[in-house]
Fold this sequence. Notes:
By secondary structure, the protein is of the alpha+beta class. It has helices at 6-11, 18-25, 29-37, 68-77, 82-90, 100-105, 109-119; strands spanning 15-17, 44-46, 51-55, 59-60, 63-64.
Amino acid sequence: xxxxxxxxxxxxxxxxxxxxxxxxxxxxxxxxxxxxxxxxxxxxxxxxxxxxxxxxxxxxxxxxxxxxxxxxxxxxxxxxxxxxxxxxxxxxxxxxxxxxxxxxxxxxxxxxxxxxxxxxx
Length: 121
């Protein structure tokens, strides 16, 4: 949970505050904080209030996007920081096409995980 630079902030199209995520997932905000702590979500401090926010693309139809947690685990195991994971997830990849985050949202998690595994080589 760190602050992010303007370049990374510009890559992520929209953000959600933790209470908003709790409402969307129909869980307590403390559970959202636990998910961040456990690495199931990435939260960064941003905005005027320096409040924790999560990319909106990580939440879809009342759930954490399928394949996100596994992808984050792979990237963490590859030695990526939270900022590097966000940059990788939201940088367009012509071979997908689109960004890895978009591909996860379109249920193409296998392709995303394959690319994340290749980063470790």
